[in-house]
Each structure stands twice: as C-alpha cells, then as structure tokens.
Amino acid sequence: QSPGASRPVTPGSIGGHFAALPPALTPDAAARELVAQALLLVGSPYRWGGSRAESGFDCSGLIRYVFAESLQWRLPGSAREQFRVGQEVDRDSLLPADLLFFSTAGSQASHVGLCIGPRRFVHAPSARGVVRIEELRGHYWLSQFDGGRRLILRS
Predict the structure, then answer these.
(1) Does the CA dihedral 123-152-75-92 come out positive or negative?
(2) What is the DSSP letter of 79?
(3) Distance CA 31, CA 10 (A)
(4) In whole angstroms, what is the distance from residue 143 CA to residue 96 CA?
(5) Per the residue annotation, which of 17, 115, 123, 139 is the catalytic one?
(6) Secondary structure of residue 150 in the 3-state scheme
(7) Distance between CA 105 and CA 65 in Å, rounded?
(8) CA-to-CA distance for 105 and 108, rounded, in angstroms?
(9) What pLDDT does residue 18 have?
(10) What is the average per-residue pLDDT within 112-122?
C-alpha cells in the first residue's frame, strides 16, 4: 500500500494499532482532549528521538505522546509511518486533532504536527528548539505540505 493511501478507519481503531476511544468520550471530545494535551506541551524542548515531556520531543514523538496521554493509543514511531494510518484529508478540510505532514528533509512525510484549529498546528521543530504553534500560511509550510490524516472520524 502506498504511503498516502487511505486505510479503513473507525473511531479508535486504525490499522490495528489502537484501542477504542475511552468510555464516554465522543469523537469531538477526543479531538478536544488531543488539542488540549498538545497545547500543554508548547514550550517543551526539542530533542531528536524524544518522546517524553521530561526530556523533550521530536515531531513524531510529540504526536505519539499526545495520543498516548489523551487516548491511550499507541501510534507508529516515525512521521512516515504515522502518514500511513488514518483517513486522507485535504488541506482545506482539516479539523482539530488531524495530523499534518510535511516534506522538510527532502522526503515525503518527514515532519508531522497536530492541527489545533483553522490553519494552525502544534509541532516540535528542530529550529528554535521548542514545541510551538505554527500557522499553515506562507510559502514555506504550504510548499512543504504533503497532506493531512484524520485518525478520529466525526459524524
């Protein structure tokens, strides 16, 4: 299956990697929980290979941590692997908690962030060294954008 191909998705069950949504948590509530968890981590240090709040995050480690802490879901380890799960989403259809993927290292889906609202995302870039909020505007991010993936289906 190609990296951008869509796999069947149901809330909490994506490609066999995930458990169900926690009891009494609707898809919209799960999305809000993911965004809130990501925002709590803004300012955390960047660390290549990092996936812990105590020591810092790289981009995919941040996403893994946010999903594990919020939903107890275990996502794949790299941005490229994360790009293979969920449902493909067009840039103009992104919703909070969708994943955004970028080609920042010369290959497809080398960087990932979490959508937090219209044209805004949280990510762990190596530049400037901290988890931060970014705007999906301007030449750089728009030209590097590979696609979005939705892991939580909403009705």
Answers:
(1) negative
(2) H
(3) 14
(4) 21
(5) 123
(6) strand
(7) 22
(8) 8
(9) 52
(10) 96
Q: Who's near 91: CB < 8 A, 6+ residues apart?
A: 136, 145, 147, 148
pTM equals: 0.86
- CA 26 to CA 50: how far, in whole Å? 30
Q: Is 111 a catalytic residue?
A: yes
Tokens of 39: 């925002």
Counting residues of the chain whose pLDDT is more than 90, the rounded percentage is 71
Q: What's residue 24's pLDDT?
A: 80
Q: Which residue has the tokens 């790289």?
A: 58
17 is catalytic: no
Per-residue pLDDT for 103 more than 80?
yes
- Catalytic annotation present for 59: yes
Residues ≥6 apart with Cβ < 8 Å to 87: 6, 7, 9, 149, 150, 151, 153
Of 111 and 18, the structure prediction assigns the larger pLDDT to 111
